[in-house]
Design brief:
Number of helices: 9
Strand content: under 5%
Shape: extended
Radius of gyration: 26 Å
Length: about 230
């Protein structure tokens, strides 16, 4: 983890240095300086705008959690979760944070969905028993669903558009819903195809092992003693 953080630091630092050097070589240092100042000003303004919006929706999510609404929605999502995560039992501790993450993503609250997503991953990681195995099928499915991220109300995107002066920031509702619906359906289909492929591969491997060692599949094989008549 530390090496990954160091790599990102080097990457961003290198990009900043390359931009400044390019500006100095081309004689546009004043423009580079002005762009840095303008970007810093915009980042503070955008941060304040996003802080208010995310605080409001995160508060709504917390109220829903404390009032039991999230738990109620998680129970109503049982058929969906059974289909997407067949490995997880209905009493599995990861199911509720998965439901919270999906609901937050559907509202376009990617930042608010992160804590629930991390908790769900930690709960699913506890199911790993094989040291040679690093992830489970449920973890892969959950990750791909987060990447595709079905969004009914893209709150974050609307906030960005409003901050930068869009006259109709809500105009992205239709395109965002269509795009994320297609991406999510594609992600679900991909996960199910890969899961079926892995299951078939496991069955073939099991059959091969049984065909190579047929005595293991016969109860009592290997313990047969020769009996002679007196």
């Amino acid at each position: 983890m530390g090496s990954e953080k160091a790599l990102l630091n080097y990457l961003w630092g290198g990009m900043l240095l390359a931009g400044m050097l390019w500006g100095a070589i081309n004689g546009t240092w004043n423009e580079v300086t002005q762009a840095l100042l303008d970007s810093a000003k915009e980042s503070v303004s955008l941060g304040i705008t996003m802080l208010g919006i995310l605080s409001f929706w995160c508060g709504i999510m917390e109220i829903g959690s404390q009032s039991g609404l999230i738990g109620w929605l998680a129970k109503r999502m049982t058929p969906v979760l059974d289909f997407l995560f067949p490995e997880l039992e209905r009493q599995h501790p990861a199911r509720e944070p998965i439901a919270v993450n999906i609901i937050a993503n559907m509202l376009g609250l990617g930042m608010a969905a992160t804590p629930a997503g991390l908790k769900a991953m930690q709960e699913m990681e506890a199911d790993i028993r094989d040291e040679a195995r690093t992830v489970t099928a449920s973890m892969c499915t959950f990750l791909i669903l987060n990447i595709s991220s079905l969004q009914l109300i893209p709150v974050t995107l609307i906030a960005y558009r409003s901050q930068y002066g869009s006259k109709q920031p809500e105009a992205v509702l239709g395109p965002a819903l269509a795009a994320t619906t297609v991406s999510t359906l594609t992600a679900v289909a991909f996960c199910k195809i890969m899961d079926l492929r892995n299951r078939n591969r496991s069955r073939r491997r099991k059959r091969m092992m049984e065909s190579r060692n047929p005595e293991k599949g016969v109860p009592g094989a290997g313990n047969v003693r020769e009996v002679t008549r007196p």
